[in-house]
Structure formats: structure tokens, C-alpha cells
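Report of the visiting student (M.T.), summer placement. My assignment was to run the structure pipeline on a short list of targets and document each run. The first record concerns Transcriptional regulator, PadR family.
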Amino acid sequence: MGKQMTEMLKGTLEGIVLAILAGQPAYGYEITARLRDQGFTDIAEGTIYALLVRIEQRGLVDVEKVPSEKGPPRKVYSLNPQGSGYLDEFWKTWSFLAERIEQLHTGHPKEQGEK
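After the run finished, the C-alpha cells were exported:
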């Protein structure tokens, strides 16, 4: 992954992880694996764990400790109502930015009200 991709991901990775958790609860390694399945192959587990700590501290997820077959219990993260609201806002912002970037790319601004 190039430097530009890394920089762009810094601003969106939180929303991407919350979107994964909106699908179903998961623990850190599962989240990393799902990201890799989506083509984000260079994201380090440590990056995801640090992000999970931040979103937990901000109250966007609920955490349940679940016994593990190997080693200590796993922390399973699930999106809570506050996190859902944050994710909704993320998607609105993403749509706004994606439209404007596409307009810049194609040189064709949308007319007011056009879909």
C-alpha cells in the first residue's frame, strides 16, 4: 500500500471498522481478517487494536469478554446505538465527499437536485 493510501485510510479506518461491526460483532483479529479479505492487506493488527481502544473509550462500541479456546478471553466488540449514530454520520460525510471528488475527477458537477 502506498503512502497516499495509508494517509487516506487514517481518516476513514474508524468508519470502516464500525461498518464491519454493524454487520456483526467481532474481536480484533476477526476485524483485521475481514479487512484483509476486502483488500486492505497491509493493515497491521496493532493499528486495529489501537483503533478499537479509541472507539471503546469514546463509547461507540460495547465490549464483551468471551472465553477463548486458546489463551485469555477475547474482547468481542459490537456496535451500540451511539456507534450506529456515528456510523450514519460517517456515511453521510463519505457520500458528500465521494460526490464532490467524482465531480472534480470527471469535471461534471451535478445540477441541483440531480441524482
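Residues 81-106 form the longest helix (26 residues). The chain has four helices and three strands. I thank the supervising group for their guidance throughout the placement.
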